[in-house]
Amino acid sequence: MKIKDILDILETMAPLAYAEDFDNVGLLTGNVNDSIKGILVCHDALVEVIDEAITKGCNLIVCFHPILFSGLKKITGKNYVERAVIKAIKNDIAIYAVHTALDNHKQGVNKIFCDALGLTDTKILIPKENFIRKLVTYTTPENYEDLRRALFAAGAGSIGNYSNCSFNSTGTGTYKGNEDSNPQVGNRGEFVQANEIKIEVTFEKHLEGNILKALFANHIYEEVAYEIYSLSNTHQNIGLGMTGTLPQPMDEKEFLQFVKQKMDAHGIRHSAYTDRPVSKVAVLGGSGSFAIKAAIAAGADVFLTADLKYHQFYEAESKILLADIGHFESERYTQNYIAEYLGAHTQGISITITGVDTNPVKYL
């Protein structure tokens, strides 16, 4: 297998189109045509991790956080980012980052977080906006079933737990072809009124190329009439954060001790206790202060996240228990998930989780 074959697997696990606009996901260094020798999975692709990859004969590092987040104007080795990039390039090591592409996946970072705590009835906390589009096209009664089937196969018509979703209506289409036309129904220069079926299907925006390819390949008209609309609907299965329910309600102090043990959190900072039992839990791995209001609106009893600032704890306002369990700690099981996913979708390739502790935060 080549590195590009592994990238296809990773994009299935966490489509890059799911990532936030500010992020820098995907292949950061390396040649996609290199043969894969071994894969090292980590949270942060530091120099020490690259040294480990060299020692273990791995030429692909799959990391959660992108070591290259913003642009570099110079690469002189003056900081930890530049040193890591230089060493990776010198040793022909590819680095691939998943970050918010996996954050936003319904089976990704926050589902992993919820599963570690045994939460059930999980739902996306902040569904992704401006991600759904609609295709509208028109064809003959003889063609519409084959065309619709091809659109479904290309990824159109999936809504939540349902697939093959469409709306179909009948009507009359009109056209008149010029001397260079080759109409499927009627003749050149003839005004034609034909029975047509209108097909409407929604799709995730990154599938547009596949959808149009299927449309043109399976439509019988010489000139395909179609429209694509951007919808304001949120995508309920893609987005940041997640809510879930404990099997049994817990006391707040008992719950935080439970979280500390399950997430191996060395220290938890939290807001004032509300003196209410914890049943519904909101989580957001990594920096999640922006989601405090969403967690309150979702009716969560507690919000687990990281990187909360002093004044943000005031935002609890006795409506919710806010708990900062640590950035690395809130995402700690992500590398295990990545390694397991790759192992289930490859054969004969060494896949190793780093032995380097990349958490920059230390505790007394």
What's this, in brief?
The chain is built from eleven helices and 15 strands. The chain has helices spanning 3-13, 47-56, 80-90, 99-103, 109-116, 144-153, 208-218, 252-262, 292-297, 327-330, 334-344, and strands spanning 26-29, 39-44, 60-65, 94-97, 120-128, 132-139, 167-176, 191-204, 226-230, 235-250, 269-270, 278-287, 302-306, 321-324, 351-353.
Account of the 3D structure:
One of its GO terms (cellular component) is cytoplasm. The protein has 364 residues and is of the alpha/beta class. It has 3 domains: 3-102 and 333-353, NIF3 (NGG1p interacting factor 3)-like (Udp-n-acetylmuramoylalanyl-d-glutamate--2,6- Diaminopimelate Ligase, Chain: A, domain 1, 3-Layer(aba) Sandwich), CATH 3.40.1390.30; 109-127 and 239-325, NIF3 (NGG1p interacting factor 3)-like (Udp-n-acetylmuramoylalanyl-d-glutamate--2,6- Diaminopimelate Ligase, Chain: A, domain 1); 132-233, Alpha-Beta Plaits (2-Layer Sandwich). 27% of the residues lie in helices and 29% in strands. The strands form 3 sheets. The chain has a 6-stranded mixed beta sheet with strand order 5-10-12-13-14-11. The chain has a 5-stranded mixed beta sheet with strand order 1-4-3-2-15, with helices on both faces. The chain has a 4-stranded antiparallel beta sheet with strand order 7-8-6-9, covered by helices on one side. The longest helix has 11 residues, at 3-13. The radius of gyration is 25 Å and the shape is globular. The relative contact order is 0.16.
